[in-house]
Design a protein that fits this description.
An 8-stranded mixed β-sheet has the order 3-4-6-5-7-8-9-10, with helices on both faces. A two-stranded antiparallel ribbon has the order 1-2. The chain is globular, with a radius of gyration of 17 Å. The relative contact order is 0.14. Mean pLDDT is 89; it is low at 1-20. The chain is built from 9 helices and 10 strands. The chain is 29% helix and 26% strand.
Length: 263
């Protein structure tokens, strides 16, 4: 497996050549769909709750999973790795039945806008989201209209590029989400006041060579200063792979599904 590091607008990103393909069971469980609105089109995968019955009375949480740079493309497949499989496991589906949406960002775009900032600095929130990020918000609205989604239990998580995307979207629409799990990604500390009431559990490796751990530390410190109580786990000696330990941790998933708006 080969690690490839690239710089985009002053920000270091990564990709893995010949990366492991998603597990067949994960691919089989998630419906292969395409969301379109106006001129925007985005492939995405959808996992339905275990025991889901159309026109039933039960309402379910919705988890939106934003992949990293490696997942970009048009094949509606690359995004099914690095944590998605943990949500698709039989034990997880039985314990935490939910809708899981995994959109795929186009190969030439990102979940967040990158400015000419220093790699060790923070990322100011641009006035408007990127087209893919805006489409994700439209997708959430569409799924909420088409399926029995519990509006008090919409969750957002993402890693690396998706971690940045998670901070971006919760900063724009904090009222939409009940909880967020950003992994090895930074945001804009100036948005902390808007995030103070949102349930957040963030993760980062202190030896990350691509996304400096200071970015997440700054976000957590700013939110606490604004009166929030975010959870933060920093993995000692871990590089740019804070997600493996995070999504495999059953306590993290238990925490996520316990969160409700207004709780």
């Amino acid at each position: 497996m080969k690690l490839v590091i690239v710089a985009v607008g002053g920000l270091l990103l990564y990709s893995l050549a010949h990366a492991q393909k998603p597990k067949p069971d994960t691919d089989k469980l998630l419906d292969k769909l395409t969301f379109t609105k106006d001129k925007a089109s985005m492939p995405y995968r959808l996992l339905k709750p275990d025991g889901y019955v159309k026109d039933g009375k039960d309402r379910y949480p919705l988890v939106v999973f934003l992949h990293g740079t490696i997942g970009r493309g048009t094949d509606n497949m690359k995004q099914l790795r690095s944590g998605v499989e943990e949500f698709a496991k039989d034990a997880t589906r039985k314990k935490h039945p939910c809708f899981l949406a995994v959109p795929q960002c186009p190969p030439d775009k990102m979940w967040f806008n990158v400015g000419p900032n220093d790699v060790k600095g923070n990322v100011p929130l641009p006035k408007s989201p990127t087209e893919p990020a805006a489409t994700v918000l439209d997708l959430i609205e569409s799924l909420s209209n088409d399926y029995p989604i519990d509006q008090g239990r919409i969750y957002l998580t993402g890693l690396s590029m998706g971690g940045y995307g998670t901070w971006d979207l919760i900063s724009r629409r904090p009222e939409l989400f009940a909880a967020a799990i950003p992994v090895c990604g930074g945001g804009d500390p100036a948005q902390a006041e808007k995030l103070a009431k949102l349930s957040i559990w963030a993760f980062h490796g202190d030896a990350d060579p691509l996304v400096p751990v200071e970015r997440l530390r700054d976000m957590i410190a700013a939110i606490k200063k604004a009166g929030g109580e975010p959870k933060y786990t920093e993995y000692k000696g871990v590089g740019h792979d804070a997600w493996t330990s995070t999504y495999k941790n059953g306590e993290v998933l238990d925490w996520l599904f316990e969160q409700k708006k207004g709780k």
